[in-house]
Amino acid sequence: MRSEREDSCTDETSGAGCPWTWARVGHLRWQVNSEFLSESLLARLDRPERLLAPPAVPLSKDYKVNYVVRVTLPGMPALVVKRHRRKKLRRAVKDCFRLSPARRSFQRACHLIGMGIPTALPVAAGDVRFGPWLRESYYICLDLGGEARSLWEVRKADPKRTDKPTVRAVGELMGKLHAAELVHLDPSPSNLWVRSTSNGRVEVILVDLDAIHSGKRFGQQRAAKDLAVLLSRVPMNSPEQLSFWVAYKKARRRSYPVRTLIHQVLLNTPESFRQNSKPQ
User: Which domain holds residue 108?
Assistant: First the structure.
């Protein structure tokens, strides 16, 4: 096992959030966060499928495609391991000519951290390939801890409660993403995690980074579609909607006409959401 070279993320979706190094373990080549480069980690990267076996705790049910577990290694904090597999031939062919989902997630995490957008700290990413053909890829990040809960769990616990701090944090997160011309193709409550910070504020953490795409043709319509998906999945009452939009506009740092954006969001959402969005 040896470290080949040290670098920082350099592709179009990366930033200066975390320095990393290449490490070759057996026949596999891994991208590893320099902060977590250790013999304890490298010893298990030769056969990464062993990370998915017990005593790892499953966090998803779909073992055949994208499988997620929580695992603890000696001398390291708890980790989350996600194995990506492709079930569609078209995407599998594309993966022959581009970064794997795990590598994209690692570099996007570095980019988000560099911009001050909360996400789980990346630890490592590696591919299992036969020539150019990607068989599977592994993304490893720090576990968010027991205090963090998905937005779905938070809203389900008391759906009738007005929770301005949480929806304000969601609006701030989406505003920062769109200010950076990034979109999340699956902004569902299960991909947004909530926890309290040391100063008592609510922080929303973004996961499933493979769904983040750079908006080369980013515009108000693309932002509206992104927000329409989110707001159709996270129902809000009128006071919460106001808090959401105020935080979003402030984080986006541009003088976008909010009324026009809200109108476009409503045009892209189901009728049930449009009814719930009317003043009560």
Answer: 2-142
